[in-house]
Amino acid sequence: MTPESLVQEIDKLVSLPEVCIQVNQMMEQPNCSATKLAEIISHDVDISARLLKLVNSPFYGMRSKIDTISRAVTIAGTNELRNLVLATTAVRSFTGIPEELINMDDFWRHAVTTGVMSQMLAQHCNALHSERLFVAGMLHDVGRLAIYLTIPEKAKRVLEVTGGDDWILAETENQIIGFNHMDVGAALMRSWNLPENLISVAKYHHCPQEATDTELDVALVHIALAIARGEMAGFAVDEMLWAIEPSAWEMTGLSPETIAPFVDDMLAKALDVMGMILMPMAQKRA
Question: Are 86 and 27 in contact (CB under 8 A)?
């Protein structure tokens, strides 16, 4: 088995909803219009509800209630809209993974926190179009889900060896499976025809020094995931930063000293975004 053949299997189980594919295609067109995007999104009740919740949140500070999709698209902007659609469809696409392999709520909490922090770190280092980092961060570990869905027995063996230590996960996957979740994540992004920065982040988020394309995005997500993982483990800020590759600091121009004061703000923003993307899913299951 190769990452590509595994992805062929996953495509039979998980595929991006039509609304996500159409939005991505529209976004690639130079004459992309808010009206056309609104028409596409209106066909998906779930995404429509989330978009309305987003634009009516304190984050946008609108004085009057926004109750139409076309107005919501105009307010959110096309890039924010694309992020919301992709993030929402990813959360609801991966279902049926055995609970003994992973707690999906914890997985997506970590993913959203990584995405939010990636975007905010990008703003701190003045990266252009920082909103692209949200989806890159949120989907960085999606290869793990693909492995759990397609080869659960081997995944179980991997987890038994690692004992919950994610820092040796990729190495253990290489030994037991023959490749790792980063290889699978990159192959899956490629099969979905997603942008190159998402492919690179999926492939190199644990080893930013090996990235040869979109290095800044990879480095930002690498820093963000370390902080997000440390936060979930209950570590102090200085304990969160020990595993970050020195090259990531060099690529971004950031440092532990410059970002430490902003960690609490980033975590608070992540909680707000979780309320828009994850909480409705939990309510629906209940």
Answer: no
